[in-house]
Amino acid sequence: MNHICIKGRLSMKLIQVIIVTAIMYGFLSICAFGEPSTTTFETGPFTVAVDLGEICDIQIEEPTQNEMLDGSTYTSYIIWVCDSMITFTEYDTYYFNLEDDFGTNSIYIDLLKIGADKDTIYVAEREIDGHHGAVGSAFLPEYGTEIYMAGFYTSPRSVCHITVIGSDNYNRMITILRTIHIEEAHV
Q1: 80 in the same domain as 14
Q2: Which of 43, 107, 119, 124 has the fewest CB neighbours in a 10 Å radius?
Q3: How many Å apart are CA 56 and CA 38, to the nearest integer?
Q4: Among 19-23, 54-58, 106-110, 117-121, whose mean pLDDT is lowest?
């Protein structure tokens, strides 16, 4: 009888050790890896996921519709994620051949338009979310800081631009470029 009782106590001790170990492992996993930091949001036909390594506040502005000289229209969607701006422009007709490069000239001109020091502008081609894209950086003398920009076609009708301002935000821009994923509903 004592023999069975000792076996039962050992089994209970073993079960307790296993339970405590499992709880500690779960706790350490949460501490080591943190909470998931992927930020996901929807605006218009776009669903976006980006992982900045932190939980981010999201501010989605009201879409604006604009008319081009030829009478066609486009809708702009502006989203702020952890102080980084992601902008989508959706055109009412198909404009872009996705096999073509996005082109660094677009980023270069955008940087000049906002007052970047021409001598500090750097642009390059880069794949973003599986699409041909372009990136650039420059110094903004008016604000005394760096700006980072990127652009790429998300579909034959849509373009995405990413803007991050601040000399200390280089790594944030790289993280966005590596982790952004966009799905478009009507494509």
Answers
A1: no
A2: 119
A3: 9
A4: 19-23
83 dihedral zone (left: phi>0; alpha: psi -120 to 50; beta): left
Whether residue 108 is found in the same domain as residue 123? yes
This prediction's pTM: 0.78
> How far from 150 is each of 87, 118, 138, CA to CA, in Å?
10, 17, 12
Single-letter residue type at 137? S
pLDDT band of 20, cuts 50, 70, 90: very low
- 10 and 75 part of one domain: no
Q: Are residues 84 and 17 in the same domain?
A: no
How many beta carbons lie within 10 A of that of residue 137, not counting itself? 21
CATH code of the domain covering residue 86:
3.40.1000
Helix, coil or strand: residue 168: helix
Longest CA–CA span in the chain (Å) reads 95
Beta bridge partners of 150: 135, 162
Q: Which residues contact 65 (CB under 8 A, 6 or more apart)?
A: 73, 74, 75, 76
Q: What percent of the chain has pLDDT over 70?
A: 80
